[in-house]
Amino acid sequence: MKGLKALLKVRGTYIGISAAILFQLIFFAVWLTAYMGVQDRTDQLSVSIVDEDGTGEVATALQQGLPFQVKVHSQLDEALEEMNKRETEMVIQIPSHFMTTLQEGKQPFIYYWINQASPIFSKSIMEQATNQVTNELNANVFAKQTAAGAAVITQQLQQLPLDQPTAQGIAAEVQSLLSALETEPVKKNIKKPNEDSEFSANLVPLMVIISSFVGAMVMIMQIHEASSFLRTAHSKWSLFLGRQLINVTVAFLLPLLTIGLMHLFSVEMKEPLYLVYLFQSVMFLTFLLFAQVFVYLFGNYGMAFNILALSLQLVTSGVLISRDLLSSGYRTLSALLPATYGADGYYSIIFGGADGMLLQNMTSLAWIASVALIIAAGAVVARKEPYFVKAIRQNGMVEN
After folding, report:
1. What is the tens place of the pLDDT at every residue in 78-89?
2. Fewer CB in a 10 Å sphere around the end CB: N or C, the chain?
């Protein structure tokens, strides 16, 4: 009981209990509000149509029937490049002579290109869409073929010198034969660019984001505690500089472990090793600088803001569901958070993508890191050292 009483007199005990409560409150509040109505916002996803057939008949029908944002391209390479930049989720290719092949009674293919460097949920929606589109296309084509065939034969029979009952019987027989024709005149062919054979690869971006930010958050809190004990011995600027040197050192050492673990577990990387190392370093440094802002502004209570930041980044980064499925407020917020660019960068590392995307994400992270460092420095400027700290230092009781 004495131990319990002692613990209840320490502020850290209540901070720990508060953290457990905050995790529950924040995660429920953020995740349930962010993902509420996601299934009703699938019309925010984008697909491209490439009409190589030239007739426009199928492309127009798809534009009107697809429940997504539809872009039309004349060149397949252009549409695939846009998809590799993760601006669209899927490309639907209508090959040349599509309608001619149908009219000849043959079975043409319609091609679906689904980007695998996307959240699992989005890929699943696109694969379901291919079934729906192909089925509807087949139903429409088959209905038109049978109706047109029946009309032609009926017209020809009416011109023959047959009595009405015989003509009607022949027409019914022809209608029956037409109904027995191929019900799926159009075949689908799904292509999966940027695919990785291992399902576990889909989890790497999420795993890296969680481990990196939680690690940064805990590290910052512990270093903050350590610097609190040293403030009577060193000036605030000396401690600030020391903390930033530790951040930079750890940020450029940790990627060696990250890359080593990916090699150990046979995670294939599509980007050069030096770029992966540099990207992970910049990303982790950004996480450290971002997390320390709240600690500099609010002290130990900054942990609550970091818990909120963790939850927000997980739901808006695009590792669980596409950012296009989020409400407008969360989509706007995602552009301001480092995990968005960290996740996008790791999709390029694991699955591949358009050239230069990793460097673009690195640049965005560097901007966030710079702003975070400036804010932290501003907090140091604004913070006044307690009188007793200055007195101890001025009296030379402890070396500065």
Report:
1. 999 999 888 899
2. N
